[in-house]
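Before the break, one more example. Copy the sequence into your notebook; we will annotate it together after we see the structure.
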Amino acid sequence: MTSFDPPPARPSSVPVRPPQQANPSWMGQIRPQHYRPAPGDGQLQSRPALAPPYSAVPAPRTSAGVVALVLGGGVLAFVSLFLVLPYLLGNTGPGGFVIGFVASLLPLTSVLLAVRFIDRWEPEPRRLLFFAFGWGALVSIAVVMLIEPFFSAAAGPASGLDYTTFAVTVQAPVVEEFSKSLGLVLLLVFARKHFDGPVDGVVFAFTVAGGFAFTENILYFGRAIAESSNPGTDLFVVFFLRGVMSPFAHAIFTGTTGLILGMAARRWNKALTLPAFALGLVPAMLLHSGWNSMGQDFLAQYILVQVPIFLLAVLVVVLLRVAERRLTRQRLQEYAAAGWFSSQEVAMLATPAGRRAALRWARSIGRARPMKALQQAATRLALIRQRVLSGRDVPAHQQDEQRQLGEVLSLRDAVLR
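Here is what the structure looks like once it is written out:
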């Protein structure tokens, strides 16, 4: 790897035609009038790594929105604990609570492993993942407990359904999906730069839903112990249904909302937030209601309906990851055209095989950590460029681009020294 002298930037009066592969996937669509080449020598001075031009750009700080979100989420989670914990203990008893808590860790682990798999290409900040989990496990549960009585009183009589059917097929899907997805809207509003695409939406949605299912499973597993004359058998049945057959049920429901919010976020248009939220709740509520509506023919519906839905969700995740890699490679190729990378470096930073090979080489010389950081920084650079090409808030995104180029080149220097 070497440093490169970027070519001079094109004069602004010359129209720029996007390269043929400017839109490498459905995740990265841009309008031709918004396209601009990657910055060259006219915007950022050519330099060896760690030279001074980037020192003039202030180091990025955690935004006030993210700080407010994390602190506010922590306070809400703490307050919610005083509502949720007594409810759980009252329904499960101390023994049932402890057993339910331990048993709930197993399906939770499977969901969090899925989150890690999806999030590997461009990991989200841990503080935001903690916010998402805390929102799902505590705050959304408290919101459900607070608004369910009002929703039942307002909508129950008008539905014409008996209370049990209404509670299972209407109330739970509507109230629970609304409560969980409020956390996604807060993430989109206050942590905008970290929630700028469908993959981010799915990652945050799975994390929120994993937290919600964790608390709900404590209730169901613990109640199977506390209210049964044959607790061992009943716990096994409930655990098999919820922990083995459907650990991803809530993740898939809320994941549809996260996906749609992420697609709206990729357009970088704040006006789309509320319409996308409303639209994203529809499939989440319908999937949730369909799951809760399964009755005596549960096994047949599970095999014929729920398993295909799960497989479709897996396919969507795979397609998201492929699209994210294609977008990263295309944007880094545009930086390569401006002289910032060689084609070999683009492959090293933007392809799975190239990343693995680069990490193996870095481990052999004791520099795996800076190499991994370099790969993640390059991915962030590609996504920042996607924001620049969105045509909105371009000057702010270009400043982020300058900072990120400085970080990438500094990390490259750390790998080579």
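Residues 327-417 form one domain. The radius of gyration is 24 Å. Try to locate both features in your own notes.
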